[in-house]
Amino acid sequence: MARVVLPSSLARYTGGATELEVEAADIRGVIRALEARYAGIGRELEEGMAVAVDGHIHQDDLFAAVAPESEVCFLPRIGGGKQKL
Amino acid sequence: MATATKETGNGNGALKYVGTRPWRPDGVDKVTGRAKFGADISLPGMLVGRVLRSPHAHARIRSIDTSAARALPGVKAIVTRDEMPEVPSQWVPAGEVQVNYRDMSQNVMAREKALYDGHAVAAVAATSAAIARQALDLIEVDYEVLPHVIDVREAMQADAPLLHDDMFTQGVEPAPETPSNVFKKVYFSTGDLEKGFAEADVIVERTFTTKPVHQGYIEPHAVVASAGEDGQCEVWCCTQGQFTVRAYCANLLGIDIGKINVTPSEIGGGFGGKTVVYLEPVALRLSQLAGRPVKIVMSREEVFRASGPTSGGAMTIKMGATRDGRMTAAKAWLAYQAGAFPGSPIQPGCMCVFAPYDIENAEVEGYDVVVNRPKVAAYRAPGAPISEFAAEGVVDELAKKLGIDPAAFRLMNAAKEGTRALYGPKFGPVGCVETLEAARSSEHYRTPLGPNQGRGIATGFWFNIGGESCATINVNEDGTATVIEGNPDIGGSRASIQLQAAEALGIPPERVRPLVADTSSIGYTFLTGGSRVTFATGMAAIEAAGKVVQQLRERAAKIWDIPVDAVEWEDGYARPSGSNAGDFEPMSLAEIAAQAGKTGGPIAATASINAQGAGPGFGTHVCDVEVDRETGRVTILRYTAVQDAGKAVHPSYVEGQIQGGAAQGIGWALNEEYIYDEDGRLENPGFLDYRMPVASDLPMIDAVIVEVPNPNHPYGVRGVGETPIVPPMAAVANAIENATGIRMTDLPMSPPRLLAAMDNGGANGGA
Questions:
Q1: How do residues A60-74 score in pLDDT, each as one tens digit?
Q2: How confident is the model at residue A77 (pLDDT cuts 50, 70, 90)?
Q3: I need a labelling partner for B42 at 20 to 30 A (CA). Which of B107, B387, B536, B560 fits?
Q4: pLDDT at B649
């Protein structure tokens, strides 16, 4: 189970929890698992957040691998990304 | 100049071209004046555009009468809010900050209200500049002048003049029922703050302010736009991101992206300020209406009145440490001015404020606040210099109270691999400790000081980013190559992309020509910003080069009639991989290229990536000052800037980035500020009165490059452009404190302000 760390700004979705465990093979799997548990959090995570997997920051990178012992830490986006129309 | 590179092992073996200092590819054109900047573009039948700007800081626009201007011979088109589409609210990235398309639309052309002195309210295209100016004088705008607010703390008050009556503060519970100028609250915390302060033997709390400062690029914004009768549009402009301009114009004007081609000119400085649009959609709309190309070039006054500075900030920092020098707790309250529309860099400001340190207990609260000033734009390491100026002042004061050398105190608490940042993740390999050690061991740090002289040290952090990039490599018939990329070259990226491509191909860089392409000639590439291009687009170029090398091996295998696995590529040559592969003379890239037609056709490859794993950047600066106690003037005597570049691809450019960031930061520290009159009109929109440092104000900045490789890049590259502007304000403030005993908490630390503080025995504040 990967260990997931959420920013305190998203604790409103989780009843206050900011550290969780999730079974997933990639970042998309983590987001889907969290959305299944906490409706509404998925969009916030996918559109508003970057993800650090074991310290390496990923942005708009849904298919980055997540290992069972990984730490998956969501953090606010720093920049970048495609302009949406 | 004492420039040194400290090799700490890059883990990528011997590099032949990366790390060398060849002539810059754009150098000759720029020193001979051949380079074409935004204002140099001209087209047949081109009209001259001019923009009418609000003289009021805050005013309702009751009506705009353009009839007299339209009747003026030579006037071919006029644009006001009535000619611009209404755009719905949608947040999108612009560099490292977020912008909203609705706000962007209303920033390029005011709708119901003018929200700052200089806000565009109309634009004219005419057959000459004189006629365009005359037409602007004939446009009648009926304003209802409203109360305005300039200061960030005043704007947060409940009775402050309200800029947007539909703005309710986000991020607070319960959701507010009344509108406010506070757009958003940001909050981070870790550990137990109360426990952390209880463990501290020494606690320091200070309040700071910084002023908005302009990026100060030499080249004003300029655009030529041409809309054809068939709906196809061409835009030439100085920008940090041609794809960004394309997307913004398409969205603001309702045009298909595929119908707009944007060509970036050479760029005379951007520093984040050219990641947004001001003129481009207006010029394009004028061209649509006039049926002719339209050129608009901002005056310097317009640049200051209407284009984004960075935020000013108000901050309170509280930090505690034990007697033996361990930081136990840190708390920050930050409020950043966003300008007339939301979207200050408060988020990165909050994330960076304590990033150089390993602190178990911390809390940061930040506010994004609108005021009647131009909408802020990105400026090198957006948000970080403001908050880290405040934090580094408190760190210095803690060290002094503890009687510990300020470099040693920072080292005792420095972030390193495995340190958990306040904003969540643990750092991978980073060079904070290495930059501090290099600064502390420098000859500069040990040199004795004279009377009225002081020395300051400060450390800074910036994330650096990756993102979407494309690169194409075409091998020419003679074995030279062209590498095509989509990032305007604002800091030497042509050289760094050229060098990385050359390294991967194994041919000298002078045989690789770098080219920055328009939006129709290369795949989507995110803008030049965030210190991402040498990292991200460099990785795309390396990947494209890898594909080319694979093709070269395949062609050699065909020629030799052996399996491709039996061909290796080394130093620009195909070679049999061993004696079993056959006895063939090595074949150069040029020899293979000459036979390309017979072996399968042209050799070319494209790579499109979304680069991940940007390596964070740390820097430590040491500054010596001398204070004139009669005038308050501060002279920078000596300045050393150390930075972890990961790998310096072209060290001269890295040194230039470090020196430029330090120079801009020194100006931010000592002189730069916007001065508004009581009606909210900017009084110093020019370089005579907006005082940026010039060469005679500064010593040569000694740049010291430290290389702690980024494991996520083939050559170890981090970004370098942002970090060097983070430490200077605190380094200068700490040096002034060391010289005078006075802690300056408000920027700029200009002669009158420092003189007043010295006269008042150290009290300063209330900028």
A1: 889 999 999 999 999
A2: confident
A3: B107
A4: 98
CB contact under 8 A, A76 and B423: yes
**CB-CB neighbors (< 8 A) of A77 in chain B:** 93
Q: How many CB atoms neighbour CB B690 within 10 A?
A: 22
Q: What confidence tens digit (pLDDT) does each residue in A32-47 have?
A: 999 999 999 998 898 8
- Residue B610 CA to residue A69 CA, distance in Å, equals 25
For each of the domains in chain B, give its residue range(s) and CATH number, in order of start.
466-611 (3.30.365.10)
B574, B548 in Cβ contact below 8 A?
no
Query: Which domains does chain A show, CATH number per domain?
Result: 2-76 (3.10.20.30)
- B169 to chain A: which residues are within 8 Å by CB? none
What residues of chain B score a pLDDT lower than 50? Answer: 1-11, 766-767
Kindly identify which residue of chain A lies nearest to residue B712, measuring between CA atoms: A56
When CB atoms are compared, the residue of B243, B424, B529 closest to A73 is: B424
- Going by their DSSP bridges, the two strands A56-58 and B4-7 should be labelled as unpaired
Residue B345 token pair = 């860099």
CB contact under 8 A, B90 and A84: yes
Looking at residue B9, its pLDDT comes to 43
Taking CB atoms and an 8 Å limit, are B93 and A56 in contact across chains?
A: no
| Range B707-719 burial, b when 16+ CB lie within 10 A, else e | bbbbebbbbbbbb
**Which residues 6+ apart lie within 8 Å of B405 measured at CB?**
B399, B440
Give the residue among B516, B585, B457 at the shortest CA–CA distance from B238: B516
Q: Do A57 and B612 touch (CB under 8 A)?
A: yes
Question: Tell me, what's the pLDDT at B16?
Answer: 97
The minimal CB distance from B187 to the residues A9, A73, A82 is found for A9
In 3D, which of B153, B691, B669 has the Cα closest to residue B460? B669
CB contact under 8 A, B347 and A75: no
Minimal Cβ distance to B248: which of A12, A78, A83: A83
pLDDT given at position B250: 97
Query: Chain A within 8 Å of B416 (Cβ-Cβ)?
Result: no
Contacts of B93 in chain A (CB under 8 A): 77, 79-83
With contact defined as beta carbons under 8 Å apart, do B281 and B252 qualify? yes
